[in-house]
Amino acid sequence: xxxxGIVNNLDANAVSLNLDRSRARLSKEARALSxxxxxESAADDPSGLAISEELQTRVDAFTASSQNVTTxxxxxxxxDGALATVTNILLRIRAIAVNAASxxxxxxxxxxxxxxxxxxxxxxxxxxxNTNFNGQHLLDGSHSGFVAAQPAxxxxxxxxxxPSASSASGAGLLLESATFTxxxxxxxxxxxxxxxxxxxxxxxxxxxxxAQYIQAGSVFSLDGATVTVQSVDAANGTINAVxxxxxxSGDVASPTLSSTITGAIAPGTxxxxxxxxxxxxxxxxxxxxxxxxxSTNEVVVVQKVASPTSFIATFxxxxxxxxxxxxxxxxxxxxxxxxxxFTFSFGGAPTDGAPIGSTAxxxxxxxxxxxxxxxSTTQVVATGTVVGGSVSSTTIDFPTKIPNYFGGAxxxxxxxxxxxxxxxxxxxxxxxxxxxxxxxxxxxxxxxYDTATQTAVTSPYLLAPNEHALLFDGVYTTIGNVGxxxxxxxxxxxxxxxxxxxxxxxxxxLAVHSGSEEGDAIALDLPSVSSASLRVSNCTVLAPPSxxxxxxxxxxxxQVDFALASVLGxxxxxxxxxxxxxxxxxxxxxxxxxxxxxxxxxxxxxIGAESTAYALTETDVQVGxxxxxxxxxxxxxxxxxxx
Length: 643
Fold this sequence. Notes:
Blueprint: H1 10-35, H2 46-100, H3 107-130, E1 132-133, E2 136-137, E3 146-147, E4 153-159, E5 175-180, E6 191-192, E7 204-207, E8 219-222, E9 225-233, E10 238-243, E11 252-253, E12 258-260, E13 268-273, E14 286-289, E15 298-301, E16 304-307, E17 310-315, E18 324-326, E19 329-333, E20 340-344, E21 359-365, E22 378-389, E23 394-398, E24 409-414, E25 429-437, E26 442-450, E27 455-458, E28 468-469, E29 475-479, E30 490-496, E31 502-503, E32 510-513, E33 521-524, H4 551-603, H5 607-632, H6 634-639
Antiparallel strand pairs: 1-2, 3-31, 4-30, 5-29, 6-11, 7-10, 8-9, 9-10, 12-18, 13-17, 14-15, 14-18, 16-17, 19-24, 20-23, 21-22, 21-24, 22-23, 25-26, 25-30, 26-27, 28-29, 32-33
């Protein structure tokens, strides 16, 4: 029990202290109830404030990025709408071309139709230039960003069924097949036949060595005759080929051609005759002429085999009579080197080295010389990749050491074509094939229409039934089994040139910031849809200066089909992007909501708990006031002692 005193009222002081605390707590609870926030300042909850502010930053960022994505969706929708109009225009141009492709149409009809095409092409360019969103041009290439390389493309747009087709090769069609030649990128190697073969005019499936390195369509010398490879099954180690002589198991097929030309050659398409016979010539074969001469060394591709000793090829340089002709690059080497890069000089003379990236083969033979005789063992023992070179040297990267299996001779072989790779696809155009009756035979005539120059060229060299040829624009054609009943039948091949990849540093893709962090962006690539980029600027239905008057219209059909595929592909990408952006916006909205909820649990006041606490604290204050009043009356009790 405390004593009475008049200097200090200790009870009142204690009550006042507790009352101040209750009033401070009541003030805080009142602020929380009035503002709805548990944390109004750093003093309320320092760590909680920092966490909640960080969460709110993310909420604001996701809200803003959702708005960005929605804007980008709108821009993509505008672009797609413009592309829909371009699609309709292309469909109209195609319909006009189909109308003009009939020989019934007169030149005046075609001129009238061409006027509409020209106007529609201008409209495509106007759409490309003027389609914009918020001042940003969408379809003129300003935001094309990276444009991937476009490989050469080819479509057989029409192909007549042959009423006279029989069970012979030629699957009932005028054009049995059409492909781009790739022969210039691979050397032709030696191989051994691993079973006895009886000569036959029909193809046979035969087990051979090194099947994985043999090219379909190639021709080899074997036992004084030829072997024509139809197809290759590398997995089973077999080829399907025509053998014109009996072959004993173990005999070696040689691809080597070493001859000379009989007369001088001038630049241009030439019929060339070789001095030696029984050479393995075939359409698509790569040949080197004037090996060892800097000024006239040249690589050409056989376009058509005219006879066992003559062929047709396009020459760009003059060549004197007796110029050497080879079909390979090769040199003897010693085994044991590798792995790594090694440089070879093929005979120390100028030559057309291999294209960069092509394959080089190392072949070993027990005979000790090339070409190997029958009875030798020969096989590919290593492969490498050409990584550099010039007209006098070739650098090859070998990933492993060159083994020595037989203790024989080794030769490294590469493809031709370092200086010039001829007959590659270089221009847009249309190849027309038509069965004709020459009076002496039934043959197929090829005509090429050049889209850019709007001119047509007809090959003077006719193709026989079932023949392979490479007459125009790098297209390797195989003719069906045509006959007299097929005269007039036609086939059309539409060819599109390859384009290189483009990185447009000054034309970046539109960047859409779609997240809360730095670098969270989606690239919106919008390629140009001008008539030039769609390759329809040269579309015409006017008759070429000579030849078939419908060729230009036929070419336009193929050209527009290519443009339609490009536009529809772009629209598909835009559609996919719009879907992606929609999902991205939904993700941003969900993230903002979830993060806002997390921030709310930290910073918002629990109104139920706060109101209960406020009522209790208010009671504490009222009681404290009453007690303080009583405590302040204690000194009066001391005064009563003096009365």
